[in-house]
Amino acid sequence: MENYEALIQARIARMRIVMATSDSARAITTEASYTGHLQAFMRFSVTVPDFKNISPEELARLYVESKARQWSVSSLDVFRNAIVFYYRHVIGKPLGDLGPWATAKRPKKLPVWLAHEDMMNLIACMKGQNRLMAEIGYGSGLRSHDLASLRWKDIHYAQKQIVIRSGKGDKDRVTFLPASCIQALKEQEQRMRALWEHDRRQDRPGVEVPSSKFTGKDWSWFWVWAGNNESRDPRSGIIRRHHVHRDTLGKAISQAVRIWGGNQRVTVHSLRHSFATEMLMSGMPIQELQEVMGHKHVTTTQIYAHCLPRLTTRRESPMDRTDSNQSTKVIPFRRVA
User: Which residues are CB-contacts of 188 (< 8 A; sequence separation ≥ 6)?
Assistant: First the structure.
C-alpha cells in the first residue's frame, strides 16, 4: 500500500503541474477541489478486488455508489469534472461513457436576490473597503473571484468600465463601473498605491501574474483589494502580497445581514443575482445581459427572468379581485354537530 500511496502522490503532483501551467490551467480553488477528489478516488480504487483489471469508468461508478448517501449533486459534478480532466489532460486517454451517474442534474432553484431598496439598506450596514467591494459587486455583477482579484489596469474611469480578464471559461469581458463608486474607488487607489510603494521600497516580490512576460512589480498589476499582510503562494511557494480572500466579503455581508435584520440568506453571489435581476427589470435584452454576466449559454441567463417581481406586480391574485359594486358577504362560522 505504501508503494501505491507514493504513486498516487506522484500522479497528483503531475496533475497540479498540468492545472497550473498548461492551456488547461484552472484556478487554485478548482485545483484543490479536483486533486482532493482524485486522491480519495485513487485510494478507494486500490481497495477494490482485482482493481487492475477493472476499467476506470467502472471504478468511478463504484466510488460514486460508495458516496451516494454523503454527496450532494454539486459534489458529484465536481468529481465528474475532476476525473474527466485527469484522464483527458494528465493521462492523455479520455474516458468513455461514465454511465447514468455522470448525467445527474442538480435541482433548479431560483437565485437569491434582493430588491434594490433592500440591497441598498443592506450595503448601508457595511463600512470601509468591504462596503465598497459590495457596491461594486452589486453595481457590476461580478463573480466573487473576479471581484476579489481585480487589478488596477482593468479599471477604466473615463469609460466607466471594468474589464474582467480570464474569467470563468478563460474569457475576457467588459462590465459596468458604477459612477457612484468612482470617488471612493479613487480614494482606495491612493491607499493601495501607498502599500505598493512600501513593497517596492522593501524590494518585496511582485504580485502573482499570469505569465512570465509580465512583472508583478508594476503598479498596473497591483491588486485593487490587496491584503494587509503577505502570505505564501500555494503554487510557487513565494511569500508575497495577495488579494484579500473572497470569504472576507462574505463574512462582512453575513454580519451586515444581522444588523439589517433581513430574513434571507444573502451571500456574495446574491450581489450578482440582484444585479442581473435589476438589469432585466430595467429593460436590458437578455442577450446583452448574457455578455455582461459572462454566461456561456443564454439558458443560464434566463433563470433570472423567473424572479422578476413585475410578473406578480402587474397582475393581482384571484383572492384580491372584488366587484366594486358588490360587497363581500361574510358567512358566520357554525359548529357542525
Answer: 129, 132, 224
